[in-house]
Amino acid sequence: MFCRLRLSSCGCPIGVFHRKLSSAEVSTALRPFYFRVHPDLFGKYPEQRKINEISLQQLSALLEAQQSSRNIATPILPFYLRKNDMPEGQFELVKIKLDSNDLRETVVKVLNACDISTSYIDKIPRMKQDKGRQFRKEFNEAYEKYKDEFDKATRMKRKVEEKKAITNVIDWISENSQQAKEKYESTQATRGQVKSLIEQLCKTYGIKEVKYDSGWNISHIRGALQSLTSMASQHPQHMDNLKDRTIALGQFTGVSLDGDVYLNIIDVRHEWLSLIKKVSQEDSALTEIPQYEKALSSILRNIHICRRKFMPKVSAAQYCSHLRQLITSIGDFYGRGSKIPDTVPESLQKYEIVVEPEAGPLMVSPTGQFITPSSCPADELIAFIAKHLDDAMLLLTEYSINKHVEKALYKEVKERFQLLDLIKDDSITPGLMILCCQRLLTRIDTIDEKLRGNILYVTHYYSVLSEGVLCIPWNFK
């Protein structure tokens, strides 16, 4: 990145700044291209898959070099494109010659070669005028044009507007950012006490780590830790069971699928002590989980058994029960002489399935995973999988692309707004987070100073949490 400045008569720099595209902008611009050429979309066609895989590797190396201002030679890159209007098994072959050293020009050439719109990248300015000068110009024009309307709205509608639903993220952040900072500062002592209590527990009883769900009020966390400390001092003989374990203050009491000892904040201490006494018995379920998951995978053509981050919280013992229930159902399905449809590939190892409690939904998640309740009849589950294989693969591919774009945008938003932290609700998928981050960056000139030094939480609503966290919906206006 470089800039060219010239000085005014008073010695102040004016002019323009030239910049390269950021990695997030490149990834976003090329998303439609990736969705047409990604190797995972050519599972049945190994030749096309291999060619696209090699070409994508070479394109990635070129883009990385150009972002680092290095020049490398690249051969003509062939790509097979999937198109909705072409019959199954037929693809369009394009050969892209990339002989420019300019990153923007390279991206545009790739998109043009595939007949993909360049409107997104066309909107990204090549140069950026001095912020102060541009702001004053735009403000003066707006002030002259709308002065009467502004005055009238200020006098007559201020109280009415405050009672209306929030419609503008810029106004809301401007009104609440200072309050959030003050709340964060006011809870500093509580956070310090929480840290001290955690260190004391770990040091005294050899606990590996103490963590807690971010949704809980920090005062509740402190109270729970004080209760745990008190209980531990009264029953030190049982605390050896927690040595080298991770303790998590959350929404249930039991051993989690990862082996963490969860303590429900709203449970009485007697429930906690009961679990700690028999924690080794609860661990026995952990050793059974891999066997059950392997068995379920084998009878569903080696499908990958997964767990989603925001799946309902269950203990290891409960999860084993769910797996057994589904395995029995599928076993009965085969026992009746039923078969998986011929349209289903011999191997489903590229697909993922998540087994959840009995009351869960049967669905394809936004990230491409099959979600099934353990009580789902086998014939219904297998028919659903057969029907939605293409949908699942497209979403899996989209997720594999989006998670890298999300990571780049996350870093850019956190750094450019100078946030203390940027977090999101578990239900916010990478695709939704990408949209949110992109729209935040388009408003950086108006809210960057207001957001600076805050913790921003992307969720589904507006709020300022008691510990000073700013919550905004991902689809803010």
Topology:
Blueprint: E1 2-7, E2 13-18, H1 23-37, H2 46-67, E3 77-81, E4 92-96, H3 103-113, H4 119-122, E5 127-129, H5 131-156, H6 158-163, H7 169-186, H8 188-205, E6 209-212, H9 218-234, E7 246-250, E8 254-255, E9 261-264, H10 269-277, H11 279-299, E10 304-306, H12 316-335, E11 352-356, E12 363-364, E13 370-373, H13 378-387, H14 389-416, E14 421-424, H15 430-441, H16 444-451, E15 455-459, E16 463-464, E17 469-473
Parallel strand pairs: 6-7, 7-9, 10-11, 11-13, 14-15, 15-17
Antiparallel strand pairs: 1-2, 2-5, 3-4, 8-9, 12-13, 16-17
Helix pairs in contact: 1-3, 1-14, 7-16, 8-9, 11-12, 14-15
Could you characterize what this model shows?
- The chain has helices at 23-37, 46-67, 103-113, 119-122, 131-156, 158-163, 169-186, 188-205, 218-234, 269-277, 279-299, 316-335, 378-387, 389-416, 430-441, 444-451; strands spanning 2-7, 13-18, 77-81, 92-96, 127-129, 209-212, 246-250, 254-255, 261-264, 304-306, 352-356, 363-364, 370-373, 421-424, 455-459, 463-464, 469-473.
- With 477 residues, it is α/β, with parallel strands linked by helices.
- The strands form five sheets. Strands 6-7-9-8 form a four-stranded mixed sheet. The chain has a four-stranded mixed sheet with strand order 10-11-13-12.
